[in-house]
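Supplementary Methods S3. Input chains for the assembly prediction are listed below.
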Amino acid sequence: MNKTTRVILAVLFVLGIGAALGKALLWGESVTNYGAYVPWGLWVGLYVLLVAAAAGSAWVAVYVSQGDEGAGDLSRMCLITAGASLVFGLAFIGIDLGKPFKGFLIFISPSFSSKLAWASWLYVGFFIAVAGYLFSGAKKAFLYLAAVAAVGFLLAESLFFSGMVARAAWSSFLTPIAFFISAIVAGTAMVCLMAEISGTSLGKASDGLRKILLYAIGADVAMEVIHAFTSGSYFGLIAVAILIAPIYLLLNKEKPLGVMTSGLALFGLAVGKYGFVRYGFSTEAMPGLTEAFQDARLSLAYMPSVVEWLVAIGFVAGMILVADAALKKLMPQSR
Amino acid sequence: MAQEDILLTMQKDLANALKKTQDKRRWGMVLDTRKCVGCFACTIGCISEYKLPPGVVYRPVLEKATGTYPEVKRQFIPRPCFQCENPTCVGVCPVGATKKEPDGIVSIDYAKCIGCRSCVSNCPYGARTFDAGTYYTEETAQPQEYEKGGFYEYGKLWRRNGKSSDVIGSARKCHFCTSRISQGLLPICVTTCIGRATYFGDLKDDQSLVRKVLTSNKVYRYKEESGTDPQVYYI
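Predicted C-alpha cells for the full assembly:
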C-alpha cells in the first residue's frame, strides 16, 4: 500500500471513529435513520458482510494450509485477515446497539434461546483460536478450531435470520445456504485483497483461489436471483449486476487476482447484504401500520444518515489499515 | 334499571383478578371494531400516560377500507401489543431482557435491554418500537420538561432525562399498563375509549366481562398461522 492510500484510509478511519464516538457518547440515536419498522440498515448489512468475510477467511486458511512451501505463512495471513474482519464486523454491531456500552451483557447474562448469544460466544472462541494459532506452537489444532468456530458463528447468525418468522424475506431454509456461499466469496475475496495490499504472495494457491472465487460468486449470484424472485425484493439484482464484473475478470486467467477483482466482489456482496437486511423490512407488519401513526422512524423508508455513512466508510478503511498493520507486524518475512 | 357502565364492571373484574396469584390470571383484551369510532383517544391517552417520544407508539389505530363503491366499509383497528402466548420477540433477545410473565404480559427490562432491536425485527405485528432518545419539543423555542418526567412501567418509575436513562435506546411496547392494573386501575386505553370498544380483564375468569364477550361473539385474531397465539381478540 502506498503512502497516499494509507493517509486517505487513515483520515477516513479517524472520521469514522469520530462519528462513532459522537453517536455513542453525544448524539445517540438521533443521528441515525433506522427506526421501528426498519430497525436495521447499513451497519447491520456491513456486520453481516464482515462476519462472513471472517468465516470465509478462516476456511481459506485451512485450504491454503494444504499447500506446500509457504503454506504456513499464507494461513497466518488468512487468519490475521479473518481476525481483523471480525473485529470490525463486531464494531459495526456494537455501534448499532441502542446502548453500545451495555453490549457486554451478552456475555454476563446471555439468553441461550438466542442464536445471537451463541454467535457471540463463538466469536470469542474464534478470537482465542486465532490468537492460539498466531502465538502458540499448536498451529494445526488452532487452525482447525478457528475454522470450526467460524462454521459455528456463521450457522448461528444465519439461523438467527432464517428463524425470524416475522420476516418473510429471511424466513427460509435458503438463508443459511446463502450465508455460507457468500462467506466463501467474502473470505476468498478478502484474503486476495489483503494479499495484494500487503504484498503477500499467494503463490501456488492463487489458481485454486481463483477457481473457488469464481464458482462461489456464480453460486452467490444464483442465490441472489432466487432470493429476489422468491422474496419479491429485487434490490439484490443490483448486487448481481456488480458481481458480473469480477466474474468477467476471473474468467480471464491473464488478469491477476488483484484489488479490482476482489474489491468488486466485496463491493457486490456489500450491496447484496445491505439489500438483504434493509429490504427484509419492505412490507408492513399489518396493513395500514405506517399510516396509523406518522413519524420518520415509523416508516418503511430508510436511507442511511451522514453519520451512518461516515462510520461505515471509516470502519471499512480502518479494517484495511489494521489488517495491513497486523500483517506487517506479524508477518515480517513476507515484506 | 340503567345498565352499569362496562368500565365499572371491568374494574370489579380487575379487583377480583388481583386477589388471585399472578400465575392464576391471564390478562387479555377483546377489541370490538364495531364500536371503535377512530377517535384515537386510546393512542393519545397512552402517549400521555407514558410520555412516549417521537417514533414510539404503543397503540396505534389502523384504518381499513374494504369493498368497492358504493358498497364500502371503513373499519378502525386498534393495535396494542398482543401479549402472545408464544412470543417471537422473547426467544431472540440475546440478553433475556424481555420475558413472558406468569400473568401473560410480555415485559421488557429496560435496565437489561442493550438495544439490538432483534425483538423489534421479529414481532409479526410491528408492536415494538425503538426509543431513539428524541423529544417532540427539543428543537422548538421552548422544550417542555414534561417530556422528561417520570412514568411507571412494569411496576417501576422510569425517566427519559438524559443519556444515562435506561429507557433511551431500548425497545418499547404496550404492556397492558402493568403498573396501573397492579393498583386496580384499568389500562389507559380502556378508560379513554369513548366507544367502550376495548374489553380488558382476566381471560381465566369465566365470570369476567372480557371472557363473556369473548365466548359470546365471533372473534378473530391476527396472523394465527404464525403460531404466536395472541391474547388480543377482535370482533
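Chain A touches chain B through 50 residues (CB under 8 Å). The domain at 3-101+114-334 of chain A is CATH 1.20.1630.10 (Formate dehydrogenase/DMSO reductase fold).
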